[in-house]
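Sequence only, no structure available. Ideas?
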Amino acid sequence: MRIAVIGASGWLGGEIAREALTRGHRVTAIGRDGDRLAAIIGATAVEADARDPDALRRAIAEHDAVVVAITDRSTEDRSLIPNTTRLLLRVAPTAGVNRLAFVGGGGSLELDDGTRLVDLADFPDAYRPEALAQAESLRLLREDADAIDWTYLSPPPEHLERGPGRGGYRVRADDRPVRDAAGHSGVSSGDLAAAMLDELEHAQFSGRRFTVGY
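Reply:
I predicted one. Tokens follow.
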């Protein structure tokens, strides 16, 4: 499979790119610094600004799937995440791309009563703007459900830790987090990457959000 990863210089995008390479897929790392990306990921790298439709179309052309793993933490542009989603929904079909896979946020996951975690009073203020931007991205995908084959992976809302995969993770396709017997929700970055590659290879959650945890 030929997979493009937008945001491969980030820790989650990088994990996903490396997991894809380990599984024998052809990976294109997309970002603003191609030489740095190539050195970090060890894959073909393409310089492209995710806000430039023509550059983005050229970078993702003819890939089987495009993984989007971007954040807005290094910019004041709180529209970056939803605007990138809008742009990809428009340009991906014209670039010969059949599938979009988003690494989204855990803040839009819900309690049993349907309350989003991001709407709770004690949700960390530092993460709220990005969580709301990720929630808007998910809304856009659901609104344009028939435009392209998409999936959206939400990490656990509590404990997403850097580290290798240990296996034994579980996935579910709804708006509730995966929790263990003690009520905790967590996973390593290595297992989150594995869950994304499992989905790209087997397409269990087309047109849906899914989440992962132990």
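The domain at 2-213 is CATH 3.40.50.720 (Rossmann fold).
Hope that gets you unstuck.
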